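Exercise 7.
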Amino acid sequence: MGMSVVISEAAEHDAEQIFKLQYLCFQSEAALYGNYRIDPLVETLDSVRAEIADDCVYVARLGDEVIGAVRGSVAEDGSAAIGRLCVHPRLQGHGIGARLLRAAESALADRHGAKRFRLHTGHRSETNLRLYRKVGYETVGTEQGKDGVPMIVLEKPAEAFVQTA
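Solution. The predicted structure, written as tokens, is:
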């Protein structure tokens, strides 16, 4: 009998698994840009712990294993930044990323008063762009990441969450 993937809020004890998963998942992004100093690969475990304590962090679990994660926070103007969405490479393509994104959007809108969601991804990250556009995000601009990677910025209004949930 197989296990189901469960989406839930992250707890402090999940920090190390999230940290290791993020490092694994973002290797392909680093290779895509020839830059192994991208932000997700240089983040510290303490930073992950702080985000779990202070922000909105969700994980996907298969049994006791964290196989996906996403983070978000809301600024004073009501815009929610969503980032670090990752799913273990062996489980990508099964809708887990979209489920994590919906969980974060729901919490950010319902509990934290988000008015719009904003995220970014590298300009060569076609798989990410396909997912984000499929769930209602639209390109609103570009920016240079702190790590030097050209990023595409995408947004959608929080009321659009209802349509994609």
